[in-house]
Amino acid sequence: MEDNGKAPVVVVYRISERAKTHKMIVFRNHHVDDIISTSKRKPLLPIEYPFDEVGVGEGCIEMYKKKYKIKNHENVL
After folding, report:
1. Residue 24's closest CA among 47, 6, 8, 43?
2. Any idea what the Cα angle at residue 74 is, between residues 21 and 71, rounded to 5°?
3. What pLDDT sits at residue 6?
4. DSSP secondary-structure letter at 77?
5. How many Cβ atoms sit within 10 Å of the Cβ of residue 11?
6. Residue 10: what pLDDT?
7. CA angle, corner 74, sides to 6 and 1, nearest 5?
8. Among 10, 12, 23, 50, which has the highest number of CB atoms less than 10 A from its own CB?
9. Any residues with CB less than 8 A from the CB of 53 and at least 6 apart, and which?
10. Residue 3's pLDDT is what?
11. Rounded distance, CA 53 to CA 10, Å?
12. Mean pLDDT of successive 10-residue segments in the chain (77 residues)?
């Protein structure tokens, strides 16, 4: 857990349905509901991006990096 009491939310996504490369982004100050909501006016990730995995907690970061062979991830505070 972080100082703010929220566990990080990890999202593995692709740019399009046909894309083979996976990207990972870690949200440190957002709730899961804010990220996966499709009714928000300005979503945190575009609705067109297909989500492959959404997880909560520090353990998901290394697990998804190994599973999808991701070298670098983006942190959003």
Report:
1. 8
2. 50
3. 85
4. -
5. 25
6. 97
7. 20
8. 10
9. 10, 11, 12, 60, 64, 67, 68
10. 60
11. 8
12. 78 95 95 90 91 96 96 94
